[in-house]
Amino acid sequence: MLNKIFNDFHEAGTDEAGRGCLAGPVTAAAVILPKKFENEILNDSKQLSETKRNVLRPYIEELAIGFGVAHVYPEKIDELNILNASILAMHSALDQIKNPPRFIIVDGNRFKPYHGIPYECIVKGDSKYMSIAAASVLAKTHRDAYMEKIHLEYPMYNWKRNKGYPTKEHREAIRKYGITKYHRKSFKQLPEQLRLDI
């Protein structure tokens, strides 16, 4: 079972989705949950079915003390690199919370100071703490919804299904059609990319 809180401070959990994708934004969420918040289903979003994530999203958004979700798009990812873009997305998500947290817990091992608020990086934090797990669900569901929307513009890449991840199908579509404005140009799109004029 997930731990409820990291410590006694008014804390926000933050996580991102889409870091390893070839297309689309990296998306982060930040969530402050009530101390008495309980949910038996909530876990790291990667451990949940799409149906369960979509059920949890409105539940988290309704009961959270505060939350924010932010996209950082491919052009910015290419400019900053994916690590800095992920941290920017987390900071932007935190910006949306009206009453700032007194402590931040971050999934993973890298973060940058945010307005002087103390923070702790926790490897696999989305499988340990409820607020990080909640952030992982919001980041994943909001990003998936965005990818399904842009799928309508470029259905040949099947982003509705692969969400921009480097599946065999996605790479085959890049090989056939080239890249779009939604692809990250700083990422190695194909194993033989250096020999392709894309």
UniProtKB/TrEMBL annotation:
Q: Does the keyword Hydrolase apply?
A: yes
Q: According to the record, how does the cofactor bind?
A: Manganese or magnesium. Binds 1 divalent metal ion per monomer in the absence of substrate. May bind a second metal ion after substrate binding.
Q: According to its UniProt record, where is this protein located?
A: Cytoplasm
SUPFAM superfamilies assigned to the protein according to its UniProt record, in alphabetical order: Ribonuclease H-like (SSF53098)
Q: Its GO biological process terms?
A: DNA replication, removal of RNA primer; mismatch repair
Out of the domains of life, which is the source?
Bacteria
What are the UniProt keywords, alphabetically? Cytoplasm, Endonuclease, Hydrolase, Manganese, Metal-binding, Nuclease
InterPro entries linked to this entry = RNase_HII, RNase_HII/HIII, RNase_HII/HIII_dom, RNaseH-like_sf, RNaseH_sf
Q: Which cofactor does it need?
A: Mn(2+); Mg(2+)
Q: Quote one Gene Ontology molecular function term.
A: RNA binding
Q: Which residues form a coiled coil?
A: none
Q: Which reaction does it catalyse?
A: Endonucleolytic cleavage to 5'-phosphomonoester
Record's GO cellular component, any one? ribonuclease H2 complex
User: Its Enzyme Commission number?
Assistant: 3.1.26.4
Question: Can you tell me which residues bind a divalent metal cation?
Answer: 15-16, 107
Query: Per the database record, which ranges form the RNase H type-2 domain?
Result: 9-198
Role summary: Endonuclease that specifically degrades the RNA of RNA-DNA hybrids.
What protein family does this chain belong to?
Belongs to the RNase HII family.
Any idea what this protein is called? Ribonuclease HII
Q: Its gene? A: rnhB
